[in-house]
Amino acid sequence: MNDKLRQTLATSRRTRAPIEFKHIRIDEDVRFGKARIGDTRFTVGDPLGYLSTGMSIEAIIHDFSELTHEAIVEGLLFAKAKEDFDNVLLLDSKEQVTLQYTTDGQ
Questions:
Q1: Which CATH architecture has domain 3-101?
Q2: Strands (E), 38-96
Q3: Among 58, 25, 48, CA closest to 34
Q4: Vertex 9, ends 4 and 14: CA angle to 5°?
Q5: Comparing C-alpha atoms, which of 68, 88, 75, 87 is closest to residue 49?
Q6: Which residues contact 22 (CB under 8 A, 6 or more apart)?
Q7: Gap between the Cα atoms of 37 and 24, Å rounded
Q8: Which residues lie closer than 8 Å to 54 by C-beta, 6 or more apart?
Q9: Which has the closest alpha carbon to 97: 22, 42, 46?
Q10: Which Gene3D superfamilies would you find in this protein's record (predicted)?
Q11: What are 9-57's pLDDT values in tens digits?
């Protein structure tokens, strides 16, 4: 994970500041509303599956040219942030998705 994204996640954990994801999209009509990378049909979990089989990010990009290194890493950060924290609120727009930590579990 690149240093900027690692720092963003660490800061958000500490301060509960929202994290904005410019490469993540959520649309109920595409892939059953799962978080996707950009305007592709790749969910944030798809590259994780490829990585778990031993593919590198570079190999994924070679095979799927619509993906970028930054977008894949941001998708992994998104998945990690959602996994780490139970109390998150997804604020999504056509432009980006924001994870906002809540204090009441809503």
A1: Orthogonal Bundle (1.10)
A2: 88-92
A3: 25
A4: 125
A5: 75
A6: 74, 95, 96
A7: 5
A8: none
A9: 22
A10: Winged helix-like DNA-binding domain superfamily/Winged helix DNA-binding domain
A11: 667 767 767 777 889 888 888 999 888 999 899 999 999 999 999 999 9
